[in-house]
């Protein structure tokens, strides 16, 4: 009885689903057919638009190629230099292009370097100044090649401009090639697309000598080879409707697509209205789709029937197996080691545990040998590395679970005896008093951190040695003057003593001067010692005090190189880092400015401005700046603009390592122009944002 009932339910379910599938298939085909047609129409529109765009680009490039080729002509250079413009005649060249290419209308214009038109292929008019045209003025001013689409007196045209240089690279003027859209329309016809190029009505009064002489209301038709039937079509159906098509429309057996043309200022110039007959669009895919959907529906019904039979048969067996394997499958699907434990013994684990401990084949063997995974933990003498011990009456798992906000780790030896590091995360199981512990291998990250620290240490050491060497040179310079004074005074006192003409007052003044200069020598050594013999630990210190100390350290260097250092600040704050590293970073920035100033500026115009406001430090010099092509690279390691004898490219890299990587602040280096004492200067600005 139960079997018959189950059979009846299956048959009834199948019939109901069959009806639903048939009805669903019908409505799906109807809806999908509509969507598919829209998709085909949209794809056709997109392909036409892309083809139109590519044809325009190709013509602009071809026009530019012609312009480039003509601008290299030596005879042209000679005519322009001799101002013998009557010899300019490109009619033969234009006829050859018309006969041997698809470009039937090419116009050529030559402009001298002052913006005066000296030749036009379509008219005898010349001598007028064309600098009112921004595109041509830009070519003459910047002397670069350019292309554009614009509306002029005659037509909507494509233009290419090329500067003219003679053999000695002297700038002589510009050559402009002007073409039309006829060839583009012809190319579109090759793929069964009829096009109308319509100039926006705002240009009605601009076009004073219309090339095609075709207007529809206020709209000018730019292509002569337009299909007359389409002219009548859009005239009858209101041209405004077609120029305002956002993408495409389908009507009267046509797919009508609109492609807008814009100038360099993104102002709308014209519209290319493309007409494709629907019969020329391949709709075979729609028919094939219907057949495929019907076949799929039949196959689906067959599969559905057998699926019902198999489902009933296997339902109970699968349910039992699923419950048994569910927990283990979840565990084994993870790439990390996952164990379920109470902190004292292991309850369950995934297969990754056996992959790591290769001396065991299954969980039971692991329990027999280790009991708990914590017995394999290695003591790393680090509070964040968990080991097997009592944590205030809690085992390791309970301790980690209670302190979820901390990043705990463990270390264990792998099959090769190498220490592997793992990140440890725990969570509590809901139904049982067990803890899920997840061990994620972070060995590579730990090793990389060690390598980075060693690299940073070597870089800082190398930079510090370089700085000390430079400073010793400056100290030696600073010592020379006091030593010279002491030597001169002592020699003078000796001679006057021998001649018995040394007066008591002069003797005392000389001694005072010797003592004063001796103190200068002592202060130099003291400053040097204090600057480089600081505590290597992280400490809290006054930002302004540390900055002034570094600036004072450079006093002798500033004096030697006639550099005026102007320091201004509006506030102070406490910085927490290694003070020696901070001083070293500021020293490296100043050293770069000093090097640039001594190599570029006269001695009476060398300035370094140090400004600290709103927790933003700016160190600016007037050394004319850094080449824009390399300014983005100056913070990279081993990149230097100095001679090999003056730098190895680590100074500014170490600045970035300290402020950006270690302290998390922002750095910006840029070229600036500014005014000082009513005089304009340019230089480099080094900005550190401590906010």
From TrEMBL:
It holds the Pfam family HATPase_c. The keyword Kinase applies. SUPFAM superfamilies: ATPase domain of HSP90 chaperone/DNA topoisomerase II/histidine kinase, Homodimeric domain of signal transducing histidine kinase, Sensory domain-like. Keywords: ATP-binding, Kinase, Membrane, Nucleotide-binding, Transferase, Transmembrane, Transmembrane helix, Two-component regulatory system. PANTHER family: C4-DICARBOXYLATE TRANSPORT SENSOR PROTEIN DCTB, SENSOR HISTIDINE KINASE. The chain crosses the membrane at residues 7-29, 293-313. The keyword Secreted does not apply. It comes from the Bacteria. It comes from Arcobacter aquimarinus. Residues 474-691 form the Histidine kinase domain. This is Cache sensor-containing signal transduction histidine kinase. InterPro entries: HATPase_C_sf, HATPase_dom, His_kinase_dom, HisK_dim/P_sf, Sensor-like_sf. GO terms for molecular function: ATP binding; phosphorelay sensor kinase activity.
């Amino acid at each position: 009885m139960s079997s018959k009932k189950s059979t009846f339910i299956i048959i009834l379910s199948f019939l109901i689903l069959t009806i639903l599938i048939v009805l669903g298939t019908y409505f799906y085909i109807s809806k999908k057919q509509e969507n598919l047609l829209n998709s085909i129409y949209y794809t056709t529109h997109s392909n036409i638009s892309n083809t139109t765009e590519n044809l325009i680009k190709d013509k602009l490039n071809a026009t530019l190629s012609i312009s480039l080729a003509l601008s290299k002509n030596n005879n042209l250079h000679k005519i322009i230099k001799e101002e013998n413009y009557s010899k300019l005649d490109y009619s033969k060249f234009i006829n050859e292009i018309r006969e041997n290419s698809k470009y039937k209308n090419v116009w050529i214009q030559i402009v001298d370097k002052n913006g005066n038109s000296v030749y036009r292929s379509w008219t005898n008019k010349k001598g007028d100044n064309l600098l009112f045209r921004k595109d041509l003025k830009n070519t003459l001013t910047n002397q670069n090649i350019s292309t554009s689409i614009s509306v002029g007196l005659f037509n909507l045209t494509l233009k290419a401009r090329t500067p003219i240089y003679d053999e000695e690279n002297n700038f002589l003027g510009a050559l402009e090639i002007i073409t039309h859209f006829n060839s583009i329309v012809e190319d579109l016809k090759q793929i069964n697309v009829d096009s109308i190029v319509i100039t926006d009505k705002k240009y009605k009064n601009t076009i004073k000598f219309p090339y095609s002489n075709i207007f529809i209301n206020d709209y000018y038709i730019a292509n002569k080879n337009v299909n007359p039937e389409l002219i009548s079509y859009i005239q009858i159906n209101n041209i405004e409707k077609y120029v305002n098509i956002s993408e495409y429309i389908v009507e009267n057996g046509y797919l009508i697509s609109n492609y807008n043309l814009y100038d360099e200022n993104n102002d709308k110039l014209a519209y290319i209205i493309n007409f494709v007959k629907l019969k020329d669009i391949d709709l075979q895919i729609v028919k094939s789709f219907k057949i495929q959907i019907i076949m799929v529906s039949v196959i689906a019904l067959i599969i559905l029937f057998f699926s019902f039979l198999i489902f009933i048969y296997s339902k109970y067996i699968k349910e039992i197996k699923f419950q048994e394997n569910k927990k283990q499958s979840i565990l084994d699907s993870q790439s990390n080691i996952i164990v379920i434990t109470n902190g004292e013994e292991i309850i369950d684990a995934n297969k990754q545990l056996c992959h790591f401990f290769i001396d065991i084949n299954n969980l039971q063997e692991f329990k027999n040998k280790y009991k708990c995974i914590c017995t394999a933990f290695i003591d790393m003498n680090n509070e964040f590395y968990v080991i097997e011990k009592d944590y205030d009456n809690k085992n390791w798992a309970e301790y980690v679970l209670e302190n979820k906000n901390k990043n705990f780790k463990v270390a264990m030896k792998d099959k090769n005896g190498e220490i592997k590091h793992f990140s440890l995360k725990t969570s509590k199981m809901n139904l049982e008093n067990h803890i899920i512990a997840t061990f994620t291998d972070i060995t590579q990250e730990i090793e990389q951190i060690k390598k980075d620290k060693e690299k940073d240490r070597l870089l800082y050491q190398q930079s510090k040695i370089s700085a000390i060497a430079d400073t010793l040179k400056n100290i030696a310079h600073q010592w020379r003057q006091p030593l010279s004074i002491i030597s001169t005074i002592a020699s003078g006192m000796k001679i006057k003593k021998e001649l018995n003409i040394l007066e008591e007052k002069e003797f005392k003044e000389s001694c005072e001067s010797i003592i004063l200069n001796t103190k200068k020598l002592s202060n130099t050594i003291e400053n040097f010692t204090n600057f480089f013999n600081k505590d290597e630990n992280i400490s809290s210190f006054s930002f302004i005090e540390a900055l002034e100390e570094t600036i004072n350290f450079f006093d002798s260097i500033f004096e030697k190189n006639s550099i005026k250092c102007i320091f201004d600040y509006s506030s102070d704050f406490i910085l927490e880092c290694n003070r020696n590293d901070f001083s070293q970073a500021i020293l490296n920035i100043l050293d770069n400015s000093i090097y640039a100033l001594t190599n570029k500026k006269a001695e009476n115009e060398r300035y370094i401005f140090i400004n600290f406001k709103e927790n933003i430090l700016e160190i600016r010099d007037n050394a004319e700046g850094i080449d824009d092509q390399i300014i983005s690279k100056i913070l990279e390691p081993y990149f230097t603009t100095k001679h090999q004898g003056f730098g190895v490219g680590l100074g500014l890299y170490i600045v970035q390592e300290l402020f950006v990587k270690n302290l998390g602040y922002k750095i910006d280096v840029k070229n600036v122009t500014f005014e000082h004492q009513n005089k304009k200067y340019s230089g480099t600005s080094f900005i550190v944002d401590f906010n």
